[in-house]
Amino acid sequence: SMQCFPGLVLALSSLLGALALLQLSLYLRVPSRYGKHEERLCRPRGRLPARCAWFLQELPSFLVPALLLALRSPPRLEPLGCRLLCCLFCWHYFYRTFIYPFFTRGRPFPLQLLFFGMLFCIYNGFLQGYYLIYCAEYPNDWCTDIRFTSGLLLFLLGMGINIHSDLLLRQLRKPGEVTYKIPQGGLFTYISGANYFGEIVEWFGFAIATWSLPAFAFAFFTLCCIGPRAYHHHRYYLKTFTDYPKSRKALIPFVF
User: Which residue ranges run through the membrane (predicted)?
Assistant: First the structure.
């Protein structure tokens, strides 16, 4: 049976933080080349349909913690707070793996990005699952702690914003369409990256609720990874649509 090695948790969390800074340096000025930022003359080689790609990419983040839990004998998810935190992580990735891909209408996804996305999901799924299942220790009344309750509320708020924004984006396209249109409604009234904003809020909520280094490293990685993408989306919309609302910000309402 596995044991908790605090040094391993610290090393993996530190590496995740370093990867976050690397992502920021790579994509702050130049966007990752997929979706609306894909090179126009790029040949559609080495791609998978968006639905298949999203399913394969997100699946490890759900399966790896489930496998770690299955390997634990006896199951350790006590107290209740620890069980709930692990369920929050798996709940998000259950949605991203088994629900979101079957409704998305995105363009075919590059295999290279899919490969790195799967590697990250294996890595992060192991880190978060290993910490919560083998290392985390919470008092029996953690569910009433202000960190847990406020973090849980933020997580649910962020997830709600993320799912609602995805729905609004899907409604922009009819089946088979690949053209881009101006998002409307919800938080898109104020920011170009409403779906990204929701996911960032979600994972910072999770980090507060778990009050752990792995979760804060993941929240920081999320910010560094999709924050710049929201900024590049904003610039794309301003450049592409002459009637794009000038009052909208990129990621944070009324600020950025």
Answer: 109-134, 146-165, 203-226
